[in-house]
Amino acid sequence: MSQSTSTPTGAESPSGGRAPVETFSYDNHIVRAFAIATAFWGLIGTSAGLLAACQLFWPDLNLNTPFTTFGRIRPLHTNAVIFAFVGNGMFCGIYYSLQRLCKARMYSDALSWFNFWGWQAIIVAAAVTLPLGLTTSKEYAELEWPVDLAITAVWLAFTVNLMGTILKRRERHMYVAIWFYIATAITVALLHVFNSLEIPAGGFKSYSIYAGVQDALVQWWYGHNAVAFFLTTPYLGLMYYFLPKAAERPVFSYRLSIIHFWGLIFIYIWAGPHHLLYTALPDWAQSLGMVFSVMLVAPSWGGMLNGLLTLRGAWDKVRQEPMLKFMVVAVTAYGMATLEGPTLAIKSVNALSHYTDWTVAHVHTGALGWNGFLTFSILYWLVPRLYNTKLWSTKLANYHFWIGLLGMMFYVVPLYTSGVTQGLMWKQFTSDGFLQYSNFLETVIRLIPMYQLRALGGLFYVTGIVLMIINLYQTTRAGRFIGDQTAQAPALNPAVKESPKLGHRWLEGVPVTFTVLTTVAVLIGGLIEIVPMFLIKENVPTLSSVKPYTPLECLGRDIYIREGCVGCHSQMVRPFRSETERYGEYSKAGEFVYDHPFLWGSKRTGPDLHRVGGKYPDAWHYNHMEDPRSTSPGSIMPRYPWLLTQKLDTNVIGDRMRALRKVGVPYTDEEIRNAPQSIESQAQKIVAGLAAGSITNAPPDREIIALIAYLQRLGTDIKAEPGATNPPPAVTAQTR
Amino acid sequence: MIQNVLQHLGGIERYGVLSLCLFFLLFVLLLGWAFSLRKAHLERMARLPLNEEENPCDLEH
After folding, report:
1. A450 neighbors A415 (Cβ within 8 angstroms)
2. What ipTM does the predicted assembly reach?
């Protein structure tokens, strides 16, 4: 039932004047659908994470199939948790709270269901394509272009439905939760569209229109703000709605929530470059990212304190209500993560933490604590109300709380230890001035016990979700679902207009103006960072010796992307003595001008590969890919035996080179025409190199040949013409 | 032409300071904005989530 009906009785509208009271209904069907999806994908997403966690100390769990290797399971896990679990949780909470805060049913039931089924279809597409190796490799934006288009359509439907509901509301002023929903809808759309600009090179293959440094900046503008506007702002809106509901008292300070909102959305967007400190990104952009990240503590903690202080005088309820326990831990985890994030964004701290498990621990404080626990809290509160009954078992919910909390502790504490241990080991020199742990593997093997403990934490956490699903299912069996919940409210009196002189109060009543201002606030930071990066030539000094990849190397690079190598190997040597000693010359911005997409990575479970070209013979790579433990005893890398047997698909090279030419790689018509001959000729050289390393009769038309060609090319361009150019370093080399 | 001007834009090192000043100015304005609101409005808005129909079974279809 979606039609509103008027009654003759008048009522005093909140903003004055008499208006007819209207009877309407809230749509609980859509809320229930998203709640079920949240619980289901929560279990799937965290289980995929548990599998990935176990693969890191038990490589056999990669199962020797392409579809189940860590490189493909990890993006499956991150996408499932972010977009499937948190995404559905966000929609569930928004569809419930928005209707009640606006005193109106959703604008369109059809759009609601398009949003639901479209989103589930996207998730299923991700679950199919990522294990198949169909990926862009850009973190949290791995899905290929057809899925990107679907995301755009579904998000647009959600935004129209959101704004339509707000416009037909019966409450003049928009509550703070709605501001956060608006910011989410607008900003996620901007981030997704601009980061996903790519040229198709086949059904499920594309190349980013950006290259190297610029791609890195756009990706982390997106990546950081995906955390901000997908994992944070909608959940802050939910906190502002569900916490007062559960505590049965108003938010501590509405004034503080105004400062929280505007401060947060304005600052967050600037902070992306803190993911790229000490890289080839220009220094000014790094400093900007660092300063704004530190400033971000202020609004974040304003929000956290606003949440916790809402519980003043209600702590006895926290002891009794598992839902509030989850909420308190969620808000506390938000506070911890938003203090830790800016700390990690300080360059001297980042020098130690970046590429280590410290970052993984940090994001899981946010994901397990903030998003996970807030979602559980909402589900425990919501499901009994949707079914007009009580929670089946408070005791079981308490068990879930404690096992979930224990799981979080077992997850993050070992990973903090692991991160600091590995960061320090990488930088440790002997008294003679040599690297103490020159073999990277030594720093990995030391972490294995921590990885085992982390997996135990994950197991606890997943067990907690199973308990919740049982509890909620039994709750639904005990009650009766209220699909259309009737409500009454007076219509807004269109004759009543507020003056702009009322400041923020006026703004809370004009959603279109509010949305425009929100858009301006989030655009300022993005434009100031990104536009100069594209337009100022000195940001990316040209290196004359840097040439496009050969056709065989190009195919090898695509295999590197397909297998998700970027999930464990960076391609960015930072200007530290500890890194130049270990890997070689530090990376320069000009070396990546043909890298569509960039593959700098964000984690070194294995060593950096930017200077791996020419470091080992071809035969070493061949043996290493077949069985990493044959060349590196104790390695935790998966085996890739299929690369030795699968035939290289060379038919795609024309389309791929043409697509790359469209995004700026200067391939000539002749090079594209002669690509098959070029591939054959380079492959024969590698076969000869393999024969020199006692691998005889290696077929030249297998995927491993292309991958070796790519790996042997990596980072060698500047060696080809030493001293040809000498661009200024992005940052002063440090002796750490 | 605009691109040509931007390509040779100088003083990029001052972007950080300018951005900081911009934020500081906005933050001060925001504080003024928040503190200019009347208490009655703030209290009414803060109670908004609590003013709903709390007992759905009474209105059940």
Report:
1. yes
2. 0.77
